[in-house]
Amino acid sequence: MKKIISSIYLTIYFAFLIGLTSCDNFDRFLGNLKRENPLDPKYDGLKGIISGTINNLSGEFKHECPIQVVIRDYRYPDFPFNLSLTSNNGTFISQVPPGNYKVIITENIYGINIQNIGNININSNEMKEIELKLPMVKLLPSNYSGEIGILSGKVTYVGGLEVAGAEISAGSWLNITDSNGNYSMNLPVGIYEITAREIQNGNIVSTSINNINININQTTIANLALPLLQ
After folding, report:
1. What is the CATH classification number for the domain harbouring 157?
2. Are residues 187 and 119 part of one domain?
3. DSSP symbol at 16
4. Same domain, 129 and 20
5. Taking Cα atoms as reference points, which of 116, 177, 130 lies closest to residue 151?
6. What pLDDT, in 10s, does the model give residues 108-154?
7. 8 A C-beta contact, residue 53 and residue 70
8. What angle in degrees, to the nearest 10, is found between the helix axes of 23-30 and 2-17?
């Protein structure tokens, strides 16, 4: 059993190691990686369904690549019961035995768990639908020929704790913070409003800084502090 679990994690690990951030490669490695839970001796073959839709923070589906959906059984919190990918319109559907589950969505570039919904109780022949929201990444193309500068910074909560997976927007360009709350992105020269957003308790929380100048071949620092909802 340990060998089976290790093989699943190693597959995911090496997929990210060799830079599988393209849609085709990500789908090839994770698209069919689904397993029924072999740990429950009382499993009698009955199933329910968890389905859902993943949108961006504005409530639209605009993610170009499939999004990884992890379903965990609370009885075995360290075992990814089901790994699947969203369809072209951001939907997913998974069959699971009756039980209590958590659904987690993961950003593909940094592997950061962006949002999860827990305590999803599934009975036999029951379907439950959920909605999750995921920040977007839309970076300046590498072949952009205009004048560019660099915007970088850090996002923290007002108390100083780093915010991983926050969405950073500068005009139409988007990035997310890494596991330490840092971000960096190339931008066309100009003046921008910089906004950081994340989901807290199902609500979108944001903060902005106006009149940030991006100059040619220079790095501009913009640190943002998000309020922390209680």
Report:
1. 2.60.40.1120
2. no
3. H
4. yes
5. 177
6. 555 555 667 878 899 988 999 988 877 878 889 888 999 999 999 99
7. no
8. 170
Q: Domain range spanning residue 12?
A: 2-133
* CA 167/CA 156 separation, integer angstroms: 12
Give the angle subtended at the CA of 47 by the CAs of 41 and 51, to the nearest 5°: 130
The alpha carbons of the chain give a radius of gyration, in whole angstroms, of 20
Chain segment 212-227, per-residue pLDDT in tens: 999 999 999 999 999 9
- Asked whether residue 140 is domain-assigned, the answer is no
Residue bearing tokens 């950073």: 168
Tell me how crowded residue 225 is: count the other CB atoms within 10 A of its CB: 16
* Angle 214-163-53 from CA coordinates, rounded to 5°: 100
Indicate if 113 and 184 belong to the same structural domain.
Answer: no
